[in-house]
Amino acid sequence: MITLCGFAISNYYNVVKLALLEKNVPFAEEYVATHCTDEAVLSSSPLGKIPFIRTPQGSMCESHAILEYIEAAYPTPALLPADPFAAAKVRELMTFIDMHLELVARDLYPQAFFGGTVSESTQARVRKQLEKNIAGFKRLVKFAPYIAGDTFTLADCVAVNNLPLVGMATKAVYGEDLLQAGGVDYKAYVKFIGERPTAQKVAADRKAASAKA
Ligand SMILES: N[C@@H](CCC(=O)N[C@@H](CS)C(=O)NCC(=O)O)C(=O)O
């Protein structure tokens, strides 16, 4: 059985959790904090990042690698199209969201979510980069009604757990949600995906974990 390690507040953890739930893969959850320097954690996740998984064959970190493993090991229901081009387009969105939206907005989190401050120069740099990247994202995203087209895919697992964070972080720091300002109507989409029982389970667990934190 797979054990998903990390915690339910993490967006990356919840991306993997949503995929496991959607695919009906049996899994256990194990709380592991970030910045852990225990050998047992570093041997599974060398940078101490979460999530990572333990499997009977060994452990693995990096959410995209984990998603690919789950998809290959448990092919049905499929969360990647069979057509190679369509599958690569789903992966394109996954990478774009993580690399060009979430990772850029992440520099705002200390101020947006953790009571810290982010320098004005960082705020300006992040804003410029995000505005450019959001305009690019708008060209890729489908919302038809799923993020990559007419089928729920791994890209939806990534999008629904990351777009709200980008929106909230930019709203908190700039007073305006840069995704919405850039014409990306992700709120209706998140509400739509949020109707899925799997997404509701992820959200409820995240809420319970946030209340405890
Ligand atoms: N590229 C990694 C990113 C994972 C990540 O950054 N997770 C955060 C929690 S949401 C973390 O572990 N942060 C602690 C750190 O960066 O040291 C993935 O896709 O799994």
What does this structure look like?
The protein has 213 residues and is α+β, with helices and mostly antiparallel strands. It folds into two domains: 2-73, Glutaredoxin (3-Layer(aba) Sandwich), CATH 3.40.30; 84-212, Up-down Bundle (Glutathione S-transferase Yfyf (Class Pi), Chain A, domain 2). Helix content is 58%, strand content 8%. It has ten helices and four strands; from the N terminus they run βαβαββαααααααα. It has a four-stranded mixed sheet with strand order 2-1-3-4, with helices on one face. A hairpin with a 2-residue loop joins β3 and β4 (58-61). The model has no long low-confidence stretch (mean pLDDT 97). Bound molecules: glutathione. The site of glutathione (GSH) has 11 residues, from α1 and α3. Glutathione (GSH) binds at residues 10-12, 34-35, 48-50, 62-64.
What's this model, at a glance?
By secondary structure, the protein is of the alpha+beta class. The protein has two domains: 2-73, Glutaredoxin (3-Layer(aba) Sandwich), CATH 3.40.30; 84-212, Glutathione S-transferase Yfyf (Class Pi), Chain A, domain 2 (Up-down Bundle), CATH 1.20.1050.
